[in-house]
């Protein structure tokens, strides 16, 4: 497969990666400078700076909840005009389940630990909580930034409302129809999957894309979950170092014999676990998050294919209807018009779809490249720190 | 004329006296025709040099009680001259057994003072086993254990320097586990190889085949002979019904291979600790265990045998006694030390548990990394962009190598760190046991005093009642109990002295042992990091090549 791609526009051509700054177009700059966590609810402060006349003010902030982002995403999906575009994937729900569970367990095990140990574990957990928090802010931010840097989406009316409307959006959200619409959407999706795998694809480009995307999606989904497990194990090892360090400390404090090196060892393990913790979190950010994000993005690309497949089905049905009309010599003009509309829709979809998918590949390749390089560099850096710490301690022990 | 031969004084000495050689051949002759008969008597004959008991008694009383007493000049000059006794200045025999993790770790032993106390047991000890001098040299069988990576071996030069010339010239390796027999009667036979220049042994290098129950038998004998007089006898590795059953049944899977390796390693450490003890290495049972080709099966070590049940009963009785004996501790040192060991016990157990958790998690990490590697390979195959596809495949390869690394590190976590802690948890139990024995000895002494008092009172009564015939008997009994009280006091003082020395030796050993093993463990961690750097540095250009 060739690695060249046609940019849809300058803005889209920019190096798109999970962690690269998408906020390059000065005409519309969005960021989430802070967020509040209240029990289960996270409240994001969405800050916009713009030179566009379509907005009332040049700079403003609103408070949004996760559900508001979902509403925005869903409206984009349901907009007909966007059928030929890859809709940026909706950010996942903030999930504090893991650190919360760990915090609970820690509370239960408090009695069996020293005060110091408990404090360290708590510190570790707070850091984890913070990491989850940062991640969710980032992923919500990226969603908005992908919209703002897209020539079509940035002009979307609902997007503007989302950014500007200074009241609570919940009224709009709780529309019963929309809730039902969501359910209907899911049902249709499964039908689409059957559709997409069944239809004969005449266009070679789309045929290849279809095969590729379907296969790739399942592989990347698997890779994501395996990477998650791996990262979690890494964190467990780092946590164990805390316990080892703490016990070594108690040992060296109580031991009257000249086992000075126990103290040094305790210190070493404390330093090591910080490095190991960084290894785990860097791996998570550069590898697991990367895979996770592109898994969702590929789903969005698949959705584009579904929509195109549906448009094709509509066109084929319109063709059949036209033939029937011609046979019956009834409502031919109407049928013909409908058929033309379907064809046009399908062609537009195909054309923009092609562009989107090509640039998507470019985006993906660049993102992987950036993150894999960064991960390798970080791994080397951390391994070198570890080695320096360890060798220092070995020297110290040997010289005694 | 030397009393005990080369092994007694383990200080480096320039040369052997000819008398040593004479004595040695006499000992060898004696050993070939061991006395059969009552255990205690047999032992006495076996071990008694020309000079007899006197040597030991006077020796005992002149030894200082401080744990780090140097070679006492006050020792019997008639039989010992420090200069004539030692082994040749040590040549460390490099053990090139690839499976032996602890080859280097066990070279050093510091000897504070040679032991000259009697090794005669007061209590019952198992019968001397007959020795049939048939040579048994088995061909070295290819080890069937997991290849524990050779990254844990390091040069002996550093070890020698550390020890500063204070070396105990014996090295033992346990290797070549071999399954003998079938079904539930099957067992593993281990090759025990001794390399030494100590002259208490017949050769400088020799091997025998032993099974697990033989080791337990040895420990049982040593414990019954030495623990009640205050010696810290290293505990034998634990039995495992589950582990052994798997091996017997013939499960050739990873867990039974690991079990065998774990046991082999534990047996080796056990033997090395035992022979490092200056008193125990001279024990005939130890020598026989290492040297003689046949040992009768130690059936009394089976859990459900008569002896096994007796052991359990005794243990229970001891526990009850411990609760009821309230000793007036006059010596603050003992109280302090006991508390220290109690604390140390708790801390070590906790640390052991943490390290075991670490081993577990590291193994998990290895498994999960392997799983991710496979997944990344699949992803790479699916990727249609050529350069990215290649990079993903490379990533998969790197992760696969890393999973191996994690697995090796888990082995190091376990065999170096975790097992060390486990050994010391068990050792401390033995130390605590020795303190309990002192209490028992004290209690026996007190009981004797009480009895003496009773007998005196009885005699006084008889005096008043004027019964001359019974009076003589009473007087005899008083004499008997006076003797027992004296003996009790002597025993108590002796065991206290021994314990002080033993504890001192134990603490010194512990520091050295930990240091050596910890350094080795840290070096394994260093190695892992080095490899990680290597792998990621190789991967980096691949990632950069994505275009």
From TrEMBL, chain A:
UniProt xrefs under Pfam families: PX, Vps5
Listed GO MF terms: dynactin binding; phosphatidylinositol binding
InterPro entries associated with the record: AH/BAR_dom_sf, PX_dom, PX_dom_sf, SNX5/SNX6/SNX32, Vps5_C
Record-level GO BP terms: pinocytosis; protein transport; retrograde transport, endosome to Golgi
PROSITE patterns attached to this UniProt entry: PX (PS50195)
Keywords: Protein transport, Transport
Role this protein plays: Involved in several stages of intracellular trafficking.
Record-linked PANTHER family: SORTING NEXIN FAMILY MEMBER, SORTING NEXIN-5
Family: Belongs to the sorting nexin family.
Protein name as it appears in the record: Sorting nexin
From TrEMBL, chain B:
Pfam families, alphabetized: PX, Sorting_nexin, Vps5
Positions of the PX domain: 168-297
GO MF annotation: an example: phosphatidylinositol binding
Stored Gene3D superfamilies: Arfaptin homology (AH) domain/BAR domain (1.20.1270.60), Phox-like domain (3.30.1520.10)
Mode of membrane association: Peripheral membrane protein
InterPro entries to which the protein is assigned, alphabetical: AH/BAR_dom_sf (IPR027267), PX_dom (IPR001683), PX_dom_sf (IPR036871), SNX2_PX (IPR037918), Sorting_nexin_N (IPR005329), Vps5_C (IPR015404)
Compositional bias per record (Low complexity), positions renumbered to this chain: 58-75
Taxonomic superkingdom: Eukaryota
GO biological process annotation, one example: intracellular protein transport
This protein's record includes keyword Protein transport: yes
Positions of region (Disordered): 26-90, 108-130
Compartments reported by the entry: Cell projection, Lamellipodium; Early endosome membrane
A cellular component annotation (GO) from this entry: early endosome membrane
Coiled coil: 464-491
Keywords of this entry: Acetylation, Cell projection, Coiled coil, Endosome, Lipid-binding, Membrane, Phosphoprotein, Protein transport, Transport
Record PROSITE patterns: PX (PS50195)
Family per record: Belongs to the sorting nexin family.
Function, as annotated: Involved in several stages of intracellular trafficking. Interacts with membranes containing phosphatidylinositol 3-phosphate (PtdIns(3P)) or phosphatidylinositol 3,5-bisphosphate (PtdIns(3,5)P2). Acts in part as component of the retromer membrane-deforming SNX-BAR subcomplex. The SNX-BAR retromer mediates retrograde transport of cargo proteins from endosomes to the trans-Golgi network (TGN) and is involved in endosome-to-plasma membrane transport for cargo protein recycling.
Protein name: Sorting nexin-2
Gene name of the record: SNX2
């Amino acid at each position: 497969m060739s690695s060249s791609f046609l940019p849809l526009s300058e803005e889209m051509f920019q190096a798109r990666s999970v962690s690269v700054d998408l906020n390059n177009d000065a005409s519309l700059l969005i960021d989430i400078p802070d967020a509040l966590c209240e029990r289960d609810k996270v409240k994001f402060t969405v800050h916009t700076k713009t030179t566009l006349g379509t907005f009332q003010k040049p700079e403003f902030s609103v408070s949004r909840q996760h559900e508001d982002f979902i509403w925005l995403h869903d409206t984009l999906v349901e907009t007909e005009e966007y059928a030929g575009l890859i809709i940026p994937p909706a950010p996942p729900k903030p999930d504090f389940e893991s650190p919360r569970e760990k915090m609970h367990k820690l509370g239960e095990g408090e009695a069996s630990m020293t005060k110091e140990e408990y404090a360290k574990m708590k510190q570790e957990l707070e850091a984890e909580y913070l990491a989850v928090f940062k991640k969710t802010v980032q992923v919500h931010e990226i969603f908005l930034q992908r919209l703002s840097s897209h020539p079509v989406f940035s002009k979307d009316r609902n997007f503007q409302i989302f950014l500007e409307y200074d009241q609570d959006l919940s009224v709009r959200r709780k529309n019963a129809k929309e809730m039902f619409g969501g359910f209907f959407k899911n049902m249709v999706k499964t039908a689409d999957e059957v559709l997409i795998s069944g239809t004969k694809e005449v266009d070679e480009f789309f045929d290849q894309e279809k095969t590729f995307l379907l296969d790739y999606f399942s592989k990347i989904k698997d890779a994501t979950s395996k990477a998650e497990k791996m990262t979690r194990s890494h964190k467990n090892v780092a946590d164990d170092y805390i316990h080892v360090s703490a016990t070594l400390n108690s040992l060296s404090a109580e031991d009257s014999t000249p086992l000075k090196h126990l103290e040094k060892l305790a210190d070493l393990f404390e330093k090591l676990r910080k490095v190991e913790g960084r290894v785990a979190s860097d791996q998570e950010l550069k590898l697991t998050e990367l895979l996770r994000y592109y898994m969702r993005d590929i789903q969005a690309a698949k959705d584009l294919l579904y929509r195109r497949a549906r448009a094709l089905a509509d066109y084929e049905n319109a063709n059949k209807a036209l033939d029937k009309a011609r046979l019956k010599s009834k409502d031919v003009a109407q049928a013909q018009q409908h058929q033309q509309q379907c064809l046009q829709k399908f062609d537009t979809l195909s054309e923009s779809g092609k562009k989107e998918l090509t640039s998507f590949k470019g985006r993906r390749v660049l993102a992987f490249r950036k993150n894999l390089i960064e991960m390798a560099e970080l791994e080397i850096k951390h391994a070198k720190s570890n080695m320096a710490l360890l060798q220092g301690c070995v020297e110290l022990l040997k010289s005694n | 004329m030397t009393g005990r031969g080369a092994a007694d004084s383990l200080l480096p000495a320039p040369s052997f006296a000819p008398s040593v050689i004479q004595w040695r051949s006499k000992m060898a002759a004696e050993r070939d025709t061991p006395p059969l008969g009552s255990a205690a008597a047999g032992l006495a004959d076996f071990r008694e040099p020309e000079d007899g008991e006197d040597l030991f008694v006077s020796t005992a009383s002149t030894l200082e009680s401080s744990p780090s007493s140097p070679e006492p000049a006050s020792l019997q000059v008639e039989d010992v001259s420090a200069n004539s006794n030692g082994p040749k200045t040590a040549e460390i025999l490099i053990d090139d057994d690839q499976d032996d993790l602890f080859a280097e770790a066990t070279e050093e032993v510091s000897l504070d003072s040679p032991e000259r106390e009697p090794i005669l047991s007061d209590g019952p000890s198992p019968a001397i086993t007959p020795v049939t001098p048939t040579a048994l040299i088995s061909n070295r069988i290819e080890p069937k254990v997991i290849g524990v990576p050779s990254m844990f071996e390091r040069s002996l030069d550093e070890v020698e320097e550390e020890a500063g010339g204070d070396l105990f010239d014996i090295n033992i390796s346990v290797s070549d586990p071999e399954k003998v027999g079938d079904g539930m009667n099957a067992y593993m036979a281990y090759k025990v190889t001794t390399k030494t220049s100590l002259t208490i042994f017949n050769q400088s290098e020799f091997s025998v085949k032993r099974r697990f129950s033989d080791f337990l038998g040895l420990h049982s004998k040593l414990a019954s002979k030495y623990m009640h007089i205050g010696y810290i006898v290293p505990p034998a590795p634990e039995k495992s019904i589950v582990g052994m059953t798997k091996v017997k049944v013939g499960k050739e899977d990873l867990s039974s291979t690991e079990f065998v390796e774990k046991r082999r390693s534990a047996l080796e450490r056990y033997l090395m600790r035992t022979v490092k003890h200056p008193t125990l290495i001279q024990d005939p049972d130890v020598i026989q265990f290492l040297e003689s080709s046949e040992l009768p099966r130690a059936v009394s070590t089976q859990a459900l045998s008569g002896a096994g049940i007796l052991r359990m009963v005794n243990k229970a009785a001891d526990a009850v006694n411990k609760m009821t004996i309230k000793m007036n501790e006059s010596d603050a040192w003992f109280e302090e030390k006991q508390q220290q060991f109690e604390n140390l016990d708790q801390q070590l157990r906790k640390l052991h548990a943490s390290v075991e958790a670490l081993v577990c998690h590291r193994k998990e990490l290895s498994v999960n990394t392997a799983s991710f590697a496979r997944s990344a390979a699949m992803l790479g195959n699916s990727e249609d962009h050529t350069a990215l596809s290649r990079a993903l495949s490379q990533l998969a390869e790197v992760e696969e190598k890393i999973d191996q690394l994690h697995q090796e590190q888990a082995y190091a976590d376990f065999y170096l760190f975790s097992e060390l802690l486990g050994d010391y948890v068990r050792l401390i139990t033995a130390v605590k046991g020795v303190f309990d024995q002192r209490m028992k000895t004290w209690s026996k002494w007190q009981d004797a005093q009480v009895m003496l008092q009773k007998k005196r009172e009885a005699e006084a009564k008889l005096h008043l009642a004027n019964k001359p015939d019974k009076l003589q008997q009473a007087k005899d009994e008083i004499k008997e109990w006076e003797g027992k009280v004296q003996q009790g006091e002597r025993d108590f003082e002796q065991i206290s002295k021994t314990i002080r020395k033993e504890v001192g030796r134990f603490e010194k050993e512990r520091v050295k042992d930990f240091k050596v093993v910890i350094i080795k463990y840290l070096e394994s961690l260093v190695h892992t990091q080095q490899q990680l750097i290597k792998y990621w540095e190789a991967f980096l250009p691949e990632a950069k090549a994505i275009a």
